[in-house]
Amino acid sequence: MVTQYAVGVDLGGTNIVVAAMTLDGSKLFGLQSAPTLAAEGADAVIARLARMVNETIDATMQETGASRDAFIGVGVGAPGTVDRATGRVLKAPNLDWHNRELAHPMSQLTGLPVQIDNDANCATYGEWWLGAARGGVNVIGVTIGTGVGGGIIVDRKVYHGSSDAAGEIGHTTIDLNGRRCGCGNYGCLEAYASGSAIAGRAREALTNDESSMLRTMVDGDLTRITAAVVYEAAGQGDAVALEIVRDTARVLGAGLANLLNIFNPDVVVIAGGVTQAGDALFEPLRKEVRRRAFKSVSERCHIVPGTLPGTAGVVGAVAAFIAQSTGHPPA
């Protein structure tokens, strides 16, 4: 039997990652990344996506000896809200795209069928297929970066909702009168637990603390504080950073406890830069979930960090292409 391949694309606001995979997920080829350069406009970004797909196919053909006919299609994980049926990105603020065709022009440029899905759905699907949530039946995925995204898998299938908008975990409300979120609402999980929110809370804390090593780590320039800097300081025992990480864990724990009580998952996988915080985050996070969720629910659920850093999105995009093309999740 001839080995077949699909290409996965993780389209982010900052970077694009592309790779080809065998349909059983056993091998990955031609992995590459490049800046998105969204300011150049949608046409330029789509042309770059297609070029990278074609380059990845060429590299895979050279490495494996496969023919072009062995490549059956392309899956794309795109940020924001999408319409899978029409292949459009309805709204992607990080790209400044509104009701933009993606699947059709990419198909024209690559000569292959193209399926799209939300990028956080794809990251969750990737961790379910080949990563930390492998073997799970009902899975919640949380991606924490500039924002907070999410994906929901029910009975081994991604749950998309009535308008492909399910899984917006970052915009669940955890404080009715809380911080203003970038979406315009108040008290969203993203306003507390995203990378940018963690950095912002650190800057606020330092207005009343002159002793934290966070100051020296950025040479006194508080605008240089990022979530990664906070995690690093927490790992070195800095009191301010540790308290911010603990607060983040408590907020995430409250948000996850709500989801556990609703969906009763067997796995929650958390991906993104926040996993750098390690046990300083995950131990109080699990404790908060146990405190708030039903005992029978929390005892059944494993909360784990993702194990596919850098590739969960492309792996999940391939999985999404397989699922949408065949009507069945990948084996």
From TrEMBL:
Belongs to the ROK (NagC/XylR) family. SUPFAM superfamilies: Actin-like ATPase domain. Gene3D superfamilies: 3.30.420.40. GO terms for molecular function: glucokinase activity. This is Glucokinase. It is an enzyme of class 2 (transferase). Its EC number is 2.7.1.2. Keywords: Kinase, Transferase. It comes from Gemmatimonas aurantiaca (strain DSM 14586 / JCM 11422 / NBRC 100505 / T-27). The gene is glk. Pfam families: ROK. PANTHER family: BIFUNCTIONAL UDP-N-ACETYLGLUCOSAMINE 2-EPIMERASE_N-ACETYLMANNOSAMINE KINASE (PTHR18964:SF149), ROK (REPRESSOR, ORF, KINASE) FAMILY (PTHR18964). Signal peptide: none annotated.
